[in-house]
Amino acid sequence: NAVVGWARLLRTGQLDSDGTNHALEVIERNAGVQKQIIEDLLDVSRIITGKLLITSETVDLLLVIHAAIDVIRPAAAAKEIRIRTHFDIPEILVLGDADRLQQVIWNLLANAVKFTPQQGEIDIHVKQHSSQAEVRIEDSGPGIPVEFLPHVFERFSQADGTSTRKYGGLGLGLAIVRHLVELHGGTVAACNNESNGGAVLTVRLPAIEHQPTEFKPRQLPTVGAH
């Protein structure tokens, strides 16, 4: 176990300053992975037992996306990945659970960061087509094997079994995304970008066509993802 190994090395006091910083980074990174695995397992348990519920309120989807970007930005910065946003309109209103929608976007971005190489790019496109909101996240990674595309959103699925060891996690994030999106009456799909070969994940949600004049979007905290 990497955490235990590095903790033992720290305890010996034999590491220099650079070695100590590296050890702490490894411990912090692995602790984050373990935390996410536990939270994903809890969510999957709630899904299986029918206990994962969502609230319903008017939400500005663009605020949700910005909040998710703020959470994932340090991980992207560590790999020098550029995150670019392409928003056609100043706001898109949907009816749903702001925190769970942020979890959806964060999971999609975390997946993109995980498989995008150093100094790669992630593009977020957001559009509204009449009564439908569309969020499309494109990365510059290797893409998804064609034979795996039908299984992307299944539980415990990862395109390459070795990626579980290489990147951490159990392949639960995208399965949770699908369930949360469907609870909101939406759909999620995956394909590969024909131009650069990267993965493209698209979420479509029912949108509110007309904004109530009294609506004031709730400011979302960016303390972390579920």
Structure, explained:
- The protein has 226 residues and is α+β, with helices and mostly antiparallel strands.
- The protein folds into two domains: 2-49; 57-206, Histidine kinase-like ATPase, C-terminal domain (Heat Shock Protein 90).
- 43% of the residues lie in helices and 20% in strands.
- It contains six helices and seven strands, in the order H-H-E-H-E-E-H-E-E-H-H-E-E.
- It has helices at residues 2-12, 17-49, 61-78, 98-115, 161-167, 173-183; strands at residues 57-60, 82-87, 93-96, 121-129, 132-139, 187-192, 199-206.
- The strands form two sheets. The protein has a five-stranded mixed β-sheet. A two-stranded antiparallel sheet has the order 1-3.
- The chain is globular and about 65 Å long.
- The chain starts with a helix and ends in a 20-residue tail after the last strand.
- The relative contact order is 0.17.
- The model is unreliable at 161-170 (pLDDT under 50).
User: Major sheet, described briefly?
Assistant: 5 strands, mixed
- Helix and strand content put the structural class at alpha+beta
Determine the CATH superfamily of the largest domain: Histidine kinase-like ATPase, C-terminal domain
Under CATH, the topology of the largest domain can be stated as: Heat Shock Protein 90
CATH second-level architecture of the largest domain: 2-Layer Sandwich
Whole-number total of structural domains: 2
Number of strands: 7
- Tell me the series of helices and strands, N- to C-terminal: HHEHEEHEEHHEE
- Strand order, largest beta sheet: 2-4-5-7-6
